[in-house]
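Retro notes (design track)

What went well: tokenization of the new backbones is finally stable.
What didn't: we kept losing track of which sequence belonged to which structure.
Fix going forward: every design gets posted as structure first, then sequence, in one message. First example under the new rule, 160 residues:
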């Protein structure tokens, strides 16, 4: 759902951006970012509260050691969704408003830079460090997305 909402943002914002309808761009942005946040928060809560049920959809007859490890992994991964939406929505938004450098910086940082650096930093935590890599990566991506959005808004106001 999150990918769908963020992907649907691009043509709507791009069209209105090209037409100079900044009022519509702002309205679509608000709608998309709000929907993305809600979808992500619901996902985080569901994954955090029902990890055993979700795991059971994919594996049957597992021992308690596996299940306890998988539950911990799911709960740690669920934290990713608290901030994941912001980088996804911002990346789509930046693409739509003709800011490919911002979108690319966010994409490369999220997919490569942050995870690689965090693997090195979280290595002492072993398997838990690997699972923490996801939520910390997306927390850093959310911070970067916020900086990008603030910079873009400042540029936008200056140009107006």
């Amino acid at each position: 759902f999150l990918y769908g909402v963020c992907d649907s943002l691009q043509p709507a914002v791009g069209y209105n951006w090209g037409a100079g309808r900044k009022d519509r761009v702002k309205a679509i942005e608000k709608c998309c970012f709000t929907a993305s946040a809600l979808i992500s928060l619901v996902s985080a809560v569901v994954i955090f509260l029902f990890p055993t049920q979700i795991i059971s959809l994919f594996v049957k007859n597992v021992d308690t050691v596996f299940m306890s490890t998988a539950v911990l992994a799911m709960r740690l991964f669920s934290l990713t969704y608290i901030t994941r939406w912001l980088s996804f929505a911002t990346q789509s938004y930046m693409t739509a408003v003709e800011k490919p450098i911002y979108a690319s910086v966010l994409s490369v940082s999220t997919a490569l830079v942050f995870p690689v650096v965090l693997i090195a930093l979280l290595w002492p935590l072993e398997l838990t460090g690997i699972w923490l890599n996801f939520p910390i990566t997306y927390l850093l991506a959310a911070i970067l997305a916020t900086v990008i959005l603030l910079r873009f808004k400042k540029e936008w106001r200056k140009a107006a």
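Added context from the reviewer: Residues 51 and 72 are 8 Å apart (CA to CA).
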